Amino acid sequence: MKTDLEIASEIELQHIDQVAGRLGLKPEDLEHYGDYKAKIKLPVVADIRKRERGKLILVSAITPTPAGEGKTTVSIGLSMALNKIGKKASVAIREPSLGPVFGIKGGAAGGGYSQVLPMEDINLHFTGDFHAITTANNTLSALINNHIYQGNELNIDPRRVTWKRVLDVNDRMLRDVVIGLGGKTQGIPMEEGFDITPASEIMAILCLSNDLMELKRKIGEITVGFNYGGEPVLVKHLGYEGAITALLKDAIKPNIVQTIEHTPAFIHGGPFANIAQGANSIIATKTALGLSDYVVTEAGFGFDLGAEKFFDIVCPYGGFCTSAAVVVATIRAIKFHGGVKLKNLSEPNPEAVKEGIVNLEKHLENTKKFGMKSIIAINKFATDTEEEINIVKDFVQGLGFDVSVVEFFTKGGEGGVDLAEKVIKMIDSEACKLHSLYDWKSPVKDKIFKIAHEIYGAEAVDYSAEAKKTLKIIEKNGYNDLPICIAKTQKSLSDNPSLLGRPKDFLVTVREIIISSGAGFLVPITGDIMRMPGLPKTPSAEKMDIDENGNITGLF
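^ thats the sequence. predicted structure below, dont judge the formating
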């Protein structure tokens, strides 16, 4: 089969005015970035928010293999399939990070005949949102350091500055650094570190803000560190919230592009689900809901990460309800959880399917804990056998769930018409009954245990000495009522990436807790999860090239 890039290059793109016109948008409603990309103007977004909203469909997945299970491909494909059966549908997903694009997992623009276009632009610099967020984050770092250097009026303790710089690159060498070396005029020597841009609190804030002024207010609430008296220092104490928000005045505007079949696609924001909330922006989702009868969105990685955070954090802050959930499963991932090595996943192994299906079982149990109506989409690969597929179908149907085999990658929207029809039937049969897993006002440790026990299956949660100190700071400064955004490996239901399938009797270890007071959540860091990934031994960058005409090759 052709590569994703080869397929994408053969598609005759429609002008973005034509694509947006399907949703009732006019050319003057858009800020154009060439012929095929645009942002929607904020006054237009504000008007759209007043309209009646469509139905929201969330796509999640089982615990994935390192290459992912095609969740974005299914999300894009489902939106196209819904249009094929006569529904007015769009898709709203995250922007890709350059870290995975040049690393191992690849981009986030779908694959095969289920992609968003222009895929080269989307996977690289797109409309510059990530650069704006990176610049805003690092400008704040420079301003904090300058405040300390210029007299430190707020008595900020340089040893307790918690705000880190970010870069949208997988660079393990920058996780822990020392800055300010070189003498008095170079600043004050301090320990520092870099996170990847999707882990920036500013990324989280942009994606959780309903409008520009809420973005400004949330930036003002960011905790950047503590003074010598142990009190938190916020951006609004420094007076920089206006300047930082000014750098984001364009980045907050939602982007609109198209799928291979010209379905409107909103692509905006990109927090990772293993270290942040893992969903595209509230402002893009609400815009899509005001323009479409059905909107398909996705939550990163498995249901234990992206979907839990979507229901417990994103939906409450966005003020919207999810009408249905689609859980993506692959025979490959199920066999992986059944003990099959990555190199052997293409080989038929019905017994491994029977062993590994417990991972899917746990995720399906979790959907019920939010009151969600769910359907399983088996993302079919060419190497899957009918016997393996039937094992999964029989199993999930025995649990009372409907199931559909999809082939979006090879057939586009036509490869999931059955799924689209079943999703519509499921939505029409019952009103939204979504509810959160926990009460935000519960004690912090109770909320963390609720997620770890109910969603992951852990028996207990342990805390390092540092995490216990932060719990006291949270209590002292009134951050108890914030929701929880656990940073955890995406490779396992536990915090140990080597525990596959459905682990039991395990302990989750919280080694530190980050207070994201601007974004409005607390981030317990579990296990060995890193907020700055590293590159693999053979990064995807090795396969990429460009010719004298600017044509890119090797980009998936």
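DSSP finds 20 helices and 24 strands in the chain.
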